[in-house]
Amino acid sequence: MQYDYSKNKDEHPEPINADVKGLIPEWLQGTLIRNGPGLFSLGETRYNHWFDGMALLHSFTIKKGEVTYRSKYLQGDTYNSNMQANRIVVSEMGTMAYPDPCKNIFSKVITFLSHTIPDFTDNCANNIIKYGNDYHATSETNYIRKIDPMTLETQEKVDYLKYLPVNIVASHTHYDKEGNSYSMGTCIAEKGKTKYTLFKVPGGSGSDGSPPLKSAEVVCTVPCRSLLTPSYYHSFGMTDNYFVFIEQPLKLDVLKMATAYLRGVNWASCMKFHAEDSTLIHLIDRKTKKEVGIKFYTGAMAVYHQVNAFEDDGHVVFDVICYDDNSLYEMFYLDKLKEQMGADTMYCKPKCKRFVLPLSDMVCCVTGEDLVKLKYTTASAVKEKEGKVLCQGEGLCDGVELPRINYNFNGKKYRYSYMCCVDISPVATKIVKFDAETKQKIEWTGGDCFSSEPVFIPRPDAVDEDDGVVLTCIINAKPVQGGFLLVLDGKSFKEVARACIDVDFHMDMHGYFIPDIKTLPRPPKTARSNTPHISTF
Ligand SMILES: CC1=C(/C=C/C(C)=C/C=C/C(C)=C/C=C/C=C(C)/C=C/C=C(C)/C=C/C2=C(C)C[C@@H](O)CC2(C)C)C(C)(C)CCC1
Ligand SMILES: [Fe+2]
């Protein structure tokens, strides 16, 4: 079964009514917005990499058992400039755009000079972030684009650099029960320093009409291991008292980036996985805003998605999807995807691993001691000299990506994650519910179809962690038949309903569910001390 990653997809800005088969629970009301690349060639030009494609937003609005669908290209500056020129004129991570050979020599020189200090793309094709009451399409440059979550209209361009010293910002954000958002960015070589900055955007900020980022506060900064080779990261972990930041040996070479345009290479070629390096794990105390004084590290790994993190009996436990190299990015070059699709070969398989960071007083422990005292994990953290602790992860399961959880359990002890299965080819034909306690998996597969990231929506008043539904957008392998939004029961992982839409969906990355305010989930009635909170995520 093959999916054509380089096919340009049509937008459907007018709402389309779905044909619903089965029964959508009456409490499930709201809009699932999803984001991903949808256009890969324009005129004579084409993008090299799937992540570079122009952002196509789509949404499923669920109301009283009915579903309406719409999709719309993000009309940012990048989109408008490309469309106007009928060619790709703005560079992306994997594609460097060069002047039109028909342009005169003067304008060519200007373009060249302006690219040595480039203005970055606002083609935000990766995720959706909520700051204050505003929703934004995001990638990882300093620009995000505000959107209308109901019509998918593109609104203001927001420049992080106006409010915070961050050149690159991770496209995954965390939210707390008060509606505050937490993000993380890198400030490259400013005043001779490169640092990672965690910042908070207060919930409700921007209600006076100003951009919510105007109220952003720096929570803490972590100095980078080296001035000119900051680590790449795509997400981080958050518990009630800590942030977990993985400084991995997948690094950007800033000097190479500064000369990339002149050398005729893309920016991605300036990102390298250093297999000989270690991975540093930073644990930041949210109260003191400082790192805990223990140097946790593990072997070289590449992580894009953290599943969850929580505190348990003097330890911080966190689960991640990790790789032994940077082959995930390499795999998504469009030429490679074409080759691999037929061959059923796979890049280095992703592994879901659990790491445990002991918070014990290091003075009382002896060198060589495993400081992990939790009975339910084989993860270890061995004390070494000079306050260093070597962590070894426990393999939870293999061949999974795009993890989602019941976000009410973010930062809490949890059991279930919902993920795409990527066993043998670069496209997911199955999704899985994984139980981290029993290690049991329940899979859903629909035969001739490809599934997107599964999003868990808790039932209002739910007590159990898996009481709710899982929504996933299914692409039909035979595009003429259209796709559907699949609604699975969170507990049994069995189909509850599907909303069929006569549209050839695009493969997307991430989504965000906005519940109708009237149906906001309330905290579960439970006696647990770590009572999960209300979230709209
Ligand atoms: C700002 C700036 C720069 C520019 C930075 C730029 C252009 C950054 C762009 C960053 C982007 C677009 C990052 C995107 C990251 C995306 C990630 C990590 C995506 C992961 C996707 C996964 C795991 C996909 C999984 C799958 C999908 C989607 C479909 C399924 O069927 C199969 C499966 C599960 C494999 C410079 C040049 C570095 C200079 C400094 C300053
Ligand atoms: Fe992601």
UniProtKB/TrEMBL annotation:
Keywords, ordered alphabetically: Iron, Metal-binding
Annotated binding of Fe cation, by residue: 172, 234, 305, 510
GO biological process: carotene catabolic process; retinal metabolic process
Cofactor(s), by name: Fe(2+)
Pfam family, one: RPE65
The record's free-text note on cofactor binding: Binds 1 Fe(2+) ion per subunit.
Superkingdom as given in the UniProt entry: Eukaryota
Signal peptide start-end: none
One GO molecular-function entry: carotenoid dioxygenase activity
Residues forming coiled coils: none
Family in the record: Belongs to the carotenoid oxygenase family.
Identification of the protein by name: Beta,beta-carotene 15,15'-dioxygenase-like
Organism whose genome encodes this protein: Sinocyclocheilus rhinocerous
Lineage: Eukaryota, Metazoa, Chordata, Craniata, Vertebrata
Name of the gene encoding the protein in the UniProt record: LOC107730091
